[in-house]
Design brief:
The protein is α+β, with helices and mostly antiparallel strands. It has six helices and five strands.
Length: about 140
């Protein structure tokens, strides 16, 4: 009986506690690529990111910022992605649709996207692998 209780404690976790444990670590890893200002705009720290990497980083940054500030939305429309990633709108739509197909993002409306939560680590691992970081060193 105590084995099941212990397994339950390990396996079934509070979503708030889970976020409180994971989000700070993820943000620390993300800081070398970009930050988010108090209005929710993404500011790039690494000028070497490709267009595809900027689009992924923008979505990831907004997702993480939304965990810290309820006034910052985790989802973005094509105009938001275009402005934040500094790319034309049609390119933002093309990249976002590509990442929906690749399961990095989810489409949640017409030209509106959110990051797939399970892709967070994958995106950070890709960036760290290429640019050096916790998992890339």
């Amino acid at each position: 009986m105590s084995d099941l209780t212990e397994l339950k404690r390990k396996f079934i976790v509070s979503s708030t506690q889970y976020d409180e444990e994971r989000v700070p670590k993820l943000i620390e890893r993300m800081l070398k690529y970009c930050k988010v200002d108090d209005k929710g705009r993404v500011i790039f720290e690494n000028p070497d990111l490709t267009t595809r990497e900027r689009v992924k980083a923008v979505m990831l940054a907004k997702f993480l910022a939304s965990k810290l500030d309820e006034n910052i939305s985790a989802d973005m429309d094509a105009d938001d992605i275009s402005t934040s990633a500094n790319i034309p709108r049609d390119q933002a739509i093309a990249r976002a649709n590509e990442f929906v197909s690749n399961k990095y993002f989810m489409r949640i409306g017409k030209a509106r996207y959110a990051i797939a939560a399970f892709s967070v680590d994958k995106i950070l691992n890709e960036l760290d692998s290429k640019y050096g970081g916790k998992n890339g060193q």
